[in-house]
Amino acid sequence: MTALNSGWIESFRILCEERSFTRAAERLHMTQPGMSQHIAKLEERLGTKLVEREAPGFLLTEAGEKTLALAQSRWREERAFLASLDDEDADKGKLSLTCSGSFATFLYPRLIEWMAEAPGLSITLDAAPEESILQGVLAGAFDFGIVSGDQRHPRLEMERLGAEPLDLVLPGAWQGRTPRFSDLQDLGYIHHPDGPRYADLVLGANFAPDYRGWETLRIRSSVNQIGQIPAPVAGGLGYTILPRSGILGFPDRDKLSKAPLGQPTLLELRLIWLKGKTRSKRDEKLARIVREEAGRLD
């Protein structure tokens, strides 16, 4: 068998990441028929089917799983090789990091400052849920991830960054006042994707037995854009619960107040990366910046 076409292999890897022929084609700036042709040629070369199409989406065959492992391995090796060519310069090359939306909002201005000082540096920052962060680092899609909690895995290294408070966020007029649970219900909860988890952690610890689950909260509004979650609170329309980084990254934070809590809730932040990864000067500088920014959250 002749060597496998690297373009077909990369198309297959992207297809498996996107789980959609249409989205994969758009990401590779191809037509959907062109994308399908790449997969068909790869299957023909291997002499076996790689995907079983379903409505909607598809499933990988056993051969497809093996091919995906090969594609990911090749991709990681290529990234490591390219990175090794300029490892001696902390301000040149590419870096990628994935973390929560709140920490991304908080961290990105510092990364912009770094890139402004280093024209040869390119940084990708991806906001994702906790499980996606873990899987992205394990797959080699990102150099580093930031998670909350103890996400131990045999293939990962981990460094504790510090504790980030979960804040009960109120309109600015509540500055210095301690709300009762009935006050919170009158205000109404600004709901977001992590809202149920955060409500159980903070309200369950501080307002028992009045709090009986997030399903019983009066929802005033729902929003899934991290930068917009504090906006209705700043406008006096309700309250919410967010990691402190989500508040510090909000431009109108002077219009917000944090409720004093008898039982503070802390998220343990940890930096994760693939075990065995050789840390370049660029990697070390990124880790130092993340460490410094996380230290501002205590």
Distance between the termini: 58 Å
CATH homology group of the largest domain: Periplasmic binding protein-like II
The general outline is: globular
Q: Number of helix segments? A: 11
Q: What is the CATH first-level class name of the largest domain? A: Alpha Beta
CATH architecture of the largest domain: 3-Layer(aba) Sandwich
| SSE series | HHHEEHEHEHEEHEHEHEHEEH
CATH topology of the largest domain: D-Maltodextrin-Binding Protein, domain 2
What does this structure look like?
The protein has three domains: 6-82, Winged helix-like DNA-binding domain superfamily/Winged helix DNA-binding domain (Arc Repressor Mutant, subunit A, Orthogonal Bundle), CATH 1.10.10; 89-162 and 267-295, Periplasmic binding protein-like II (D-Maltodextrin-Binding Protein, domain 2), CATH 3.40.190; 164-265, 3-Layer(aba) Sandwich (D-Maltodextrin-Binding Protein, domain 2), CATH 3.40.190. The chain is 43% helix and 22% strand. It has helices spanning 6-18, 21-27, 32-46, 62-84, 101-117, 130-138, 181-187, 195-206, 230-234, 244-248, 281-295; strands at residues 51-53, 58-60, 93-99, 121-127, 144-148, 156-171, 189-191, 219-222, 240-243, 256-258, 265-274. Strands 3, 4, 5, 6, 9, 10 and 11 form a seven-stranded mixed sheet that branches. A two-stranded antiparallel ribbon has the order 1-2. Strands 7-8 form a two-stranded parallel sheet. A hairpin with a 4-residue loop joins β1 (51-53) and β2. α2 crosses α3.
Task: Draw up the topology in text.
Blueprint: H1 6-18, H2 21-27, H3 32-46, E1 51-53, E2 58-60, H4 62-84, E3 93-99, H5 101-117, E4 121-127, H6 130-138, E5 144-148, E6 156-171, H7 181-187, E7 189-191, H8 195-206, E8 219-222, H9 230-234, E9 240-243, H10 244-248, E10 256-258, E11 265-274, H11 281-295
Parallel strand pairs: 3-4, 3-5, 7-8
Antiparallel strand pairs: 1-2, 5-11, 6-9, 6-10, 6-11
Helix pairs in contact: 1-2, 1-3, 1-4, 2-3
Protein name: LysR family transcriptional regulator
Keywords: DNA-binding, Transcription, Transcription regulation
InterPro entries: LysR_HTH_N, LysR_subst-bd, WH-like_DNA-bd_sf, WH_DNA-bd_sf
